[in-house]
């Protein structure tokens, strides 16, 4: 059982708990992106096992009336084992998703080419039923967006959380913010919908809504479970909002990252430990 201190950021250890959380969130007009926790497997066995969990999760979603989809990390389904393992498992997941959208998460810069290459293949094969994430801090992202602009599917723009080499990524917060705004404008102008604004930054969300008003391009807002949830509920009254919801037995390291990355998260964890 996940302790209350972690349940703010993780929706349980089992698919049943995650789906129940999804049902509750749907009632508040927020859609859910489910992610089974796990990454960086170096043997095929665990990668195949997690792929099987996603196949069963897709069956559960498609038997329900839930507004939910899934998001998969490449290293979770075999990229660190070999590109062929990653392709085999992602193809199985995409093939099984009849009416459920499948996101491919983006990891560090060493995975970008393999991730985008497979996304392009799968989203064309599945009539746009696959999405991918790109990171504004990477200097290559403008060229990647130009490549993705005419493809079906969706693209999630995030600022980027990995500690990338300075020759490949912008390191200053102001420069990353400027790149994020630049890429948002490009996407709203050049994309035919399918834009996912993956940010908790009120300034970026406000800019996206302004661009939507200007260009009329369809978009959605995506935020993490446990972060600015009041804002998520408010935004859902007017815009399409998706919450990224992790679950599974490997919750400890994920919770630690969430607790440490923002001062308010750390305060929340400290208060919970102290019982205040």
From TrEMBL:
<keyword id="KW-0285">Flavoprotein</keyword>
<comment type="pathway">
    <text>Amino-acid degradation; L-proline degradation into L-glutamate; L-glutamate from L-proline: step 1/2.</text>
</comment>
<keyword id="KW-0642">Proline metabolism</keyword>
<dbReference type="InterPro" id="IPR002872">
    <property type="entry name" value="Proline_DH_dom"/>
</dbReference>
<dbReference type="InterPro" id="IPR029041">
    <property type="entry name" value="FAD-linked_oxidoreductase-like"/>
</dbReference>
<dbReference type="InterPro" id="IPR015659">
    <property type="entry name" value="Proline_oxidase"/>
</dbReference>
<dbReference type="Pfam" id="PF01619">
    <property type="entry name" value="Pro_dh"/>
</dbReference>
<feature type="domain" description="Proline dehydrogenase">
    <location>
        <begin position="19"/>
        <end position="268"/>
    </location>
</feature>
<keyword id="KW-0560">Oxidoreductase</keyword>
<dbReference type="InterPro" id="IPR008219">
    <property type="entry name" value="PRODH_bac_arc"/>
</dbReference>
<dbReference type="GO" id="GO:0004657">
    <property type="term" value="F:proline dehydrogenase activity"/>
</dbReference>
<protein>
    <recommendedName>
        <fullName>proline dehydrogenase</fullName>
        <ecNumber>1.5.5.2</ecNumber>
    </recommendedName>
</protein>
<dbReference type="GO" id="GO:0000166">
    <property type="term" value="F:nucleotide binding"/>
</dbReference>
<dbReference type="GO" id="GO:0010133">
    <property type="term" value="P:L-proline catabolic process to L-glutamate"/>
</dbReference>
<keyword id="KW-0274">FAD</keyword>
<keyword id="KW-0547">Nucleotide-binding</keyword>
């Amino acid at each position: 059982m996940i302790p209350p201190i972690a349940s703010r950021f993780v929706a349980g250890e089992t698919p049943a708990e995650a789906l129940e959380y999804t049902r509750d969130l749907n009632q508040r007009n927020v859609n859910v992106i489910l992610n089974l926790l796990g990454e960086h497997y170096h043997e095929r066995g665990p990668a195949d096992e997690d792929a099987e969990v996603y196949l069963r999760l897709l069956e559960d979603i498609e038997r329900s009336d839930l507004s939910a989809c899934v998001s998969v990390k490449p290293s979770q389904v075999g990229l660190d084992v070999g590109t062929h393992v990653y392709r085999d498992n992602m193809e199985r997941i995409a093939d099984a998703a009849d009416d459920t959208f499948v996101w491919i998460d983006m990891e560090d810069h060493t995975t970008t080419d393999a991730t985008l290459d497979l996304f392009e293949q799968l989203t064309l094969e599945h009539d746009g039923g696959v999405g991918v994430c790109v990171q504004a801090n990477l200097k290559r992202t403008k060229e990647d967006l130009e490549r993705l602009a005419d493809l079906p599917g969706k693209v999630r723009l995030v600022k980027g959380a990995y500690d990338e080499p300075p020759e490949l990524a912008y390191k200053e917060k102001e420069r990353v913010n400027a790149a994020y705004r630049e890429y948002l404008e490009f996407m709203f102008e050049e994309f035919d919908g399918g834009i996912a604004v993956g940010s908790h930054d009120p300034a970026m969300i406000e800019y996206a809504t302004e661009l939507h008003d200007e260009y009329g391009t369809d978009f959605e807002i995506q935020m993490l479970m446990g972060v600015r949830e009041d804002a998520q509920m408010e935004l859902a009254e007017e815009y399409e909002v998706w919450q990224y919801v992790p679950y599974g037995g490997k919750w400890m390291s994920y919770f630690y990252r969430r607790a440490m990355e923002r001062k308010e998260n750390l305060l929340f964890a400290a208060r919970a430990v102290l019982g205040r």
